[in-house]
Write a structure and sequence with these properties.
Sulfite Reductase Hemoprotein, domain 1, Sulfite Reductase Hemoprotein, domain 2, 3 domains, five-stranded antiparallel β-sheet, 31% helix, binds siroheme, binds iron/sulfur cluster
Length: 556
């Protein structure tokens, strides 16, 4: 028997899920136990399904270890916000909760939602109740279930933008687990009688083998990096009407250093689904992953590995059998951009929107750019809603034409309209990494701003100041900033050292390639400078840096 066919034992996480009684675990006891700041071992996995991660301050680990103190435990709480939408009142509430219960920073994530860090155990339940009072929840924001569903954020590009957004919300609802554990644990809901949890026709007792991600996008802007998802749904317009989606499966970014079995993958397009069949297609793809995904090795458990192990034709066959019909051939679609449209734009109903740059998604006040204070003032005006983008930016939404000048004045008052950032800084994305991410090997969001300053100096030197280059950095190879879809990707190896990947495109349609390993800052800048100099001389018209690298075969 070869490795492929020999049955392997399920991973320990499978046992945790099975024992959890519908994601209850012993969370209530763990939360009550004030002798420690952490949760019981199983509960650390179970709580993820409730949108929460146990973390500790890694900057303080050694000092506390020396003093023989327990780690400085706290929790990160992530909201489920399909398509990234909230009201101004919800923004004010979230900002208040971050201040009162967390470390004061609202962090916009690469999946169109927000999370707060630093909530200690004793504040968890009241904090979750405060979120519920605002009308938001954190169900399935993490865990082996379908996560927050993304949708293209920019309304000016399409008349059916709002309809696609509603699809994101409908898919999110459709794939929610059936357990009432969330209401029971956090909101004092009715207790489960007996030990048997609620029946769940999709997730059963073992949920999915691994996290599961869905994004929707509206061409021509690939602002959700749709092909980085387990399921990508690309909205199709035919004869001026929104008819359905091209369906792509098996995207993902995560890899493990030194493990060639793991790899980033772009989702493969398998056909077209009309609007009215979208929910069932998504459900059945999720069910195939439930039934065929690897439950022994979590590193090889994402849908991308299932698709490659089965082969795309076999996967499609399985889907068609379950559906009882075949998907239609994929329609022609074209992408021409990915970056957020910063500044003002208008939708087809003449309402206005303003997208603000948020460096690495951290809502803080900086000199001359009072983002945190400004967003609160904008929310207090009640004249706009808020939407997060998958590039960690924030959009002010649904502004009536007569209120545009008032919003502009508030933006100017806080330095938000007049601040200038280079195009490369505006496109850059970094993941959280240190000091909260337990998996970080190197810095990312704390280091990225100063790294970009050095890149800006190089761009200035070579007369490239107006040439945007997409640069993405992660503190480890898990890929939370989608670094393999950047023109320059930096993937953390150890403190101060990164692998350098080059040659992705600016549209999120081509993966970059490993160019050099384990470089420190001076090594990265020394590797990039001659390439930028050559690009400045040899680029053709508006050719992007990543396309130049690809054309010259530099990272082949
Ligand atoms: Fe991620 C794990 C942060 C988007 C791939 N990610 C983590 C954890 C929870 C670390 C952990 O497991 O304990 C990080 C928490 C850090 C912290 O302190 O907040 C973390 N991921 C993030 C966020 C906050 C990065 C950000 O700066 O915005 C993003 C939250 C998104 C959200 O709102 O749900 C985030 N993570 C992503 C993305 C991008 C995307 O989905 O478009 C990816 C790559 C796409 C993909 O899934 O393939 C991503 N995160 C991972 C992985 C690797 C999964 C894999 O297939 O191997 C891990 C590790 C894991 O799951 O074991 C991970
Ligand atoms: Fe943490 Fe790695 Fe994700 Fe960055 S890429 S947030 S370091 S898991």
């Amino acid at each position: 028997m070869n490795q492929e066919t020999k049955p392997q034992p399920p991973s320990p996480t499978e046992g945790v899920k099975e024992r959890s009684r519908g994601l209850r675990g012993t969370l209530e006891q763990s939360l009550r136990d004030q002798l420690t700041g952490q949760l019981a071992a199983d509960d650390q996995s179970v709580i993820k399904f409730h949108g929460i991660y146990q973390q500790d301050d890694r900057d303080r680990r050694e000092a506390r270890e020396r003093k023989k103190l327990e780690r400085d435990y706290s929790f990160m709480i992530r909201l489920r916000l399909p398509a990234g939408e909230i009201t101004p009142a919800q923004w004010l509430g979230i900002a208040h909760i971050a201040q009162a219960s967390g470390n004061g920073v609202v962090k916009i994530t690469t999946r169109q939602t927000v999370q707060i860090h630093g909530v200690i155990k004793s504040k968890m339940k009241p904090t979750m109740q405060s979120f519920a009072a605002l009308g938001v929840d954190t169900i399935s924001a993490c865990g082996d279930v379908n996560r927050n569903v993304l949708a293209g954020a920019h309304p000016s590009i399409s008349p059916f933008h709002a309809e696609v957004q509603r699809f994101a919300a409908a898919i999110s609802e459709h794939l929610l687990p059936k357990t009432r554990a969330y209401s029971e644990i956090w909101l004092d809901g009715e207790k489960l009688s007996g030990d048997e949890p609620e029946e769940d026709p999709l997730y059963g007792k073992h949920y999915l083998p691994r996290k599961f991600k869905i994004a929707l996008v509206i061409p021509p802007i690939n602002d959700t990096d749709v092909l980085a998802n387990d399921i990508g749904l690309i909205a199709v317009e035919e004869k001026g009407k929104f008819t359905g989606f091209n369906v792509a499966v098996g995207g993902g970014m995560g890899t493990t250093h030194g493990s060639p079995d793991t790899y980033p993958r772009l989702a493969t397009t398998i056909g077209f689904v009309p609007k009215d069949k979208t929910l069932e297609v998504v459900w059945q793809i999720t069910a195939i992953q439930r039934d065929f995904g690897n439950r022994s090795d979590r590193k090889l458990a994402r849908l991308k590995y299932t698709v490659d192990r089965m082969g795309i034709e076999r996967f499609k066959e399985e889907l068609h059998t379950r559906l009882g019909y075949a998907l239609a051939p994929a329609r022609d679609v074209a992408f021409t951009a990915r970056a957020d449209l910063l500044g003002w734009q208008q939708d087809q109903e003449e309402r206005w929107y303003y997208t603000l740059f948020v460096e690495n998604g951290r809502v803080v006040d900086a000199p001359g750019y009072a983002l945190k204070t400004g967003l609160c003032a904008l929310a207090q005006s009640g004249l706009c809603g808020f939407r997060f983008t998958a590039s960690q930016n924030i959009m002010l939404t649904y502004i009536a034409p007569e209120n545009r000048a008032k919003i502009q004045a508030l933006l100017e008052q806080h330095g938000l309209a007049q601040a200038e950032f280079s195009p490369t800084r505006q496109e850059a994305i970094a993941c959280v990494a240190l000091n909260t991410c337990p998996l970080a090997l190197a810095e990312a969001q704390r280091y990225m701003p100063s790294f970009i300053t050095k890149i800006e100096a190089l761009l200035e030197k070579h007369d490239l100041r107006d040439a945007p280059i997409s640069i993405r950095m992660t503190g480890c190879p898990n890929g939370c900033a989608r670094p393999h879809l950047a023109e320059i990707g930096l993937v953390g190896r150890s403190l101060g050292h990164y692998n350098l990947h080059l040659g992705g495109d600016a549209l999120g349609l081509r993966l970059n390639r490993l160019y050099a390993e384990n470089l420190d800052e001076s090594g990265i800048l020394a590797a990039l400078e001659p390439l930028l100099a050559a690009y400045a001389k040899e680029r053709r018209g508006g050719e992007r840096f990543g396309d130049y690298i690809e054309r010259k075969g530099i990272a082949a």
